[in-house]
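Fig. S4 source data, part A: sequence.
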Amino acid sequence: MRKIRKGDNVIVIAGKDKGKRGSVLRVLDESFLLVEGANSVKKHQKPNPMKGTTGGIVSKEMPIHVSNVALFNPTTQKADRIAIKKLDDGRRVRIYKSNGEMLDA
């Protein structure tokens, strides 16, 4: 079970975008993910008439390592660590380490 999933609200804890918050757009593999508004770069793109794209400088999000982000806890308004707990009925849920609150319903 992954601790950070698509759609989670995360905060960047290291790097040039430290402190920025955003939701996870995509989980690329075990260790990289795309965060909305974080690690954006300018890319010089050539026009491609076959695809119908225009050229110019476009801004796009680049992958960020999972160790550089942490889940944002809305009750404490801070970054928080995640633990995985097994319930009595056999389900596995994610909980915040600081207050023990369940993340998944």
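Fig. S4 source data, part B ends here. The radius of gyration is 17 Å.
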